[in-house]
Amino acid sequence: MDKFYGSWTQESCENVDAFLGALKIGFLLRTAAKTQTPTVEFSAEGDVITFKTITTFKTDQVEFELGKEFPEKRLDGVMVQTTAVLQDDALVFHKEGDKPYTVTFSLEGEKLKVKYVIGNVVATRTLKKN
After folding, report:
1. Within a 10 A sphere around the Cβ of 107, how many other Cβ atoms?
2. Domains and CATH numbers, the chain
3. 50-72 as b/e, with b when 16 or more CB fall inside 10 Å?
4. What are the per-10-residue average pLDDT scores of the chain (130 residues)?
5. CA-to-CA distance for 114 and 106, rounded, in angstroms?
6. Are the CB atoms for 86 and 96 separated by under 8 Å?
7. How far, CA to CA in Å, does 127 sit from each of 6, 22, 70, 73, 79?
8. Given CA atoms 87, 22, 75, 55 in this order, what sign does their dihedral have?
9. 83 near 67, Cβ under 8 Å?
10. Cys bridge to 82: 12, 23, 48, 72, which one at CB 3.0-4.6 A?
11. What is the largest CA-CA distance in the chain?
């Protein structure tokens, strides 16, 4: 888990609009999300991990322990139940709600790759360490 700690800023993204559309997120929120360059931060205190997403519009933060379900609010305000696990050298968030999906964080060289999957729709973000 240590390799994920720190602050990461987005360099590129692909297919995010289609992913958000598959979640039935409205046009205005999708447009706002596509134009943002988020920074994500991972930190920990003991077993509690903090994950923060920072944009010019707002900052979202969740605290969790690996393997334990926790409530999380999506971009559109919908609550989902999330479980984060380490799997095959990646950090995987399994999100259960009206439409289940996964978000996977993995390192490829010096880049943090984020893969979003809902059904057959896949989106990606590439981030660099600050």
Report:
1. 14
2. 2-129 (2.40.128.20)
3. ebbebeeeeeeebebeeeeeeeb
4. 96 94 90 87 98 91 97 90 97 96 97 98 97
5. 7
6. no
7. 12, 23, 25, 22, 26
8. positive
9. yes
10. 72
11. 40
Q: What is the pLDDT of residue 31?
A: 86
> What pLDDT is recorded for position 128?
98
pLDDT score for 56: 87
Q: How far is CA 41 from CA 28, 95, 99, 102, in A?
A: 25, 19, 26, 19
CA 125/CA 94 separation, integer angstroms: 17
- CA torsion sign for 110, 65, 74, 41 is negative
Q: Which residue's entry shows tokens 């289609």?
A: 18
